[in-house]
Amino acid sequence: MNNRHVHPKRGTDRTGHSKSSFSLGQRCGRMIWQICSPLVTWSPRPCHGWRRFVLRCFGACLHPTSRVYPGVRIWHPAHLIMHERSCLAERVDVYNLANVVIEAGATVSQGAWLCTATHDFDDPAHPLVTSPIRIGEEAWVAGEVFVGPGVQVGARSVALARAVLVKDIQDDEVVGGNPAQVLRKRGHS
Description:
Helix content is 14%, strand content 28%. A hairpin with an 8-residue loop joins β11 (117-119) and β12 (128-130). It has one domain (22-174): UDP N-Acetylglucosamine Acyltransferase, domain 1. The longest helix is centred in the N-terminal third of the chain and has 13 residues, at 24-36. Mean pLDDT is 91; it is low at 10-17. It is built from 3 helices and 20 strands. The protein is an alpha/beta fold. The chain has helices spanning 24-36, 38-41, 48-57; strands spanning 5-6, 61-62, 67-68, 73-74, 80-82, 87-88, 93-95, 100-102, 107-108, 113-115, 117-119, 128-130, 133-135, 140-141, 146-147, 152-153, 158-159, 164-165, 173-176, 181-185.
């Protein structure tokens, strides 16, 4: 199943500048979120309930036991879904123009980058292309891992620090490197 979404071609206006991929309403909503996002980013570490409250006000779907730590940067809260006991650690960058789903018990560690968008570089207009990311149950995305558009991280899998995930990771796989390669199955040496 292909979950990719290609946004309309931007083209150029009369001045030769490229047109935005987003409507005026989307840009206004983004501006309001940028003004309010420090309420999440700069809040004290133990205030998980407060961060959930603010993110829910902007459309996020967060389980009451999910944890979002300070310093997290979320591009579009309405595209964030976090299940029970899931975690976004400090300094995680969630560039979610499409949905990002963090399943039950999954952890995304410090400095990771979840990126749901790119551009079609084969098209001269470079239209925006988005595809959702899913982090499976009990999976662990370690520190400073990059997860690219459309990547599905399997249940109980582990992406080792600074791995670059550009394709799906199956259940129970341990991956590392750039691009990430399967190193072994979890629970086996």
